[in-house]
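Lecture 7 notes: from sequence to structure.

We start with a single chain of 94 residues. Read the sequence below before looking at the structure.
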Amino acid sequence: MPELPSPDSVELQEFRSKFSGYREVMQSRATAYKGSQYTLEKLYELYAGLGNRARAMAETVITEWLESDDEGLRFDARALLREFNVCKKGNHES
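Now the structure, written as tokens:
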């Protein structure tokens, strides 16, 4: 399973790659386990355990997911934003 890098030693681009990679692994497991909520549950657990700087980066990535062509990615983004009462950010860092 991909590990998230320490937010103190990483730029947003690397964090984005690892966070998205984590979701992809969880999505693959969900398919194998035939568990439709598995990915979302794991994303909830991951997000809940993040520190302030990592959460800020995760929120940027999650907000970017809202613009994805992938319906599942948009669904997960909306669910995370709703579950953790995160306001959508208007501009994205790269």
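The longest helix spans residues 12-33. Keep this in mind for problem set 3.
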